[in-house]
Batch of 3 targets.
Target 1
Amino acid sequence: MPEQSPFIWHELVTPDQKCSGAFFSELFGWTRKEVDAGPFGTYTLFQKNGQDVAGMMNPTSATLGGKTFRQNL
């Protein structure tokens, strides 16, 4: 029987996907795959050994609760 692990999804909301993506890719040895998310901009999938392990997206009004990014810091 194959080893099972719990489903865990890490997602980062950031206004600077380029910088954040480079940081986490180097830190964890992940590769990145960018996907067009239409009006939400780019959604980035982080992958390890060809498997999706996390995601990253731009802030939206839904993720910020109607506030600007700086107001949420």
Target 2
Amino acid sequence: MVAHATSSRGPGTKAKGYAEKYRALAEPIDLIAVEFNKSDRNLAAFEVERA
């Protein structure tokens, strides 16, 4: 499920491999990315993906 995805910054969580250490647990992993707007001080975008 992707709610809204925008990324103008560097490599994301998937590229950095943060979830890899949890794959051996054989449980679903939800990857959640959140982007904040610094000038508005508010949530700009988010993305949720089941891995």
Target 3
Amino acid sequence: MDEKTMVNDILAGVKASLTAYQTAIAETENMQLRQTLQQIRNNDESFQYELFKTAQAKGYYKSARTCYYYGNSNCKR
């Protein structure tokens, strides 16, 4: 498995985790658990953003806006 594939797999996994954390936070009554989940979510968001910046700098990730605006033929459709 090449680096690009691994990075994109991790980004997809973290994105799914962030969605799950948001659901859990919204449904949690226990304030201590809620705060813990929020802290984990915030850490994952920071990690995701740093990995995203790395992927973008290496050309592994093209945003939908970039693909649309510049008509990049290397973007998935």
